[in-house]
Amino acid sequence: MKKGEDLIISGKTKPERSIKMDVNFEIPLTVKDLKYEHLFDDVAINSIPNEFHVEAHNVKNMTFTVKMLIPFKQYREAKDGIATYIDKDVPTGSYDIIISGDANENADEVILKIKASQTIASDKNGDFVYEYPTKPFPNGTVDLFLGQDKKEIRIIL
Fold first, then answer.
1. Which of 64, 70, 152, 153 is most deeply packed, by most CB within 10 A?
2. pTM summary value
3. 12-59 residue pLDDT tens
4. What percent of the chain has pLDDT above 90?
């Protein structure tokens, strides 16, 4: 699928049921002057409840910045080279997010591991449809979990 297209997820389950959906992906970042940074531009949050789990590997720390009217920043020290940020029930809207920090001394690369969780609800007939924007996804493989089912999605430019 081409980056930026909406991924349409649809199916049938029991009526008026909530289904958990997780999207997992990794982003390798090149370290420059012992620093790393990645911008997620225009991330769409479409529903609540939701949860975001971000891990930066091979780092000393991580700053998670959400650009709104004023920047909202969260700083995390790493433990054993991994810095973690978790946020739940982020209000719906579109956000610019910057993940940055200091890499470990001999690091050439930092790996960001991202997990985004949302809930999809089925209607009174058990049908569900959800459009997931792929703009923030990296090129490469994204793992989508819908309930217990896993699907690999390949994102290309």
1. 64
2. 0.88
3. 889 999 888 999 999 999 999 999 999 998 888 888 889 999 999 999
4. 53
**122: which DSSP letter?**
-
In this predicted structure, what is the pLDDT of residue 154? Answer: 86
Q: Are 6 and 131 in contact (CB under 8 A)?
A: yes
Non-local CB neighbours of 128 within 8 Å, separated by 6+ positions: 9, 10, 11, 12, 13, 19, 120, 121, 122
Say if residue 28 is preceded by a cis peptide, omega within 30 of 0.
Answer: no
The two three-digit tokens of residue 37, written as one number: 């940074």
Q: Are 109 and 26 in contact (CB under 8 A)?
A: no
Report yes or no: 43 and 52 within 8 Å, Cβ to Cβ: no
Q: What are 34's two structure tokens?
A: 């012992």
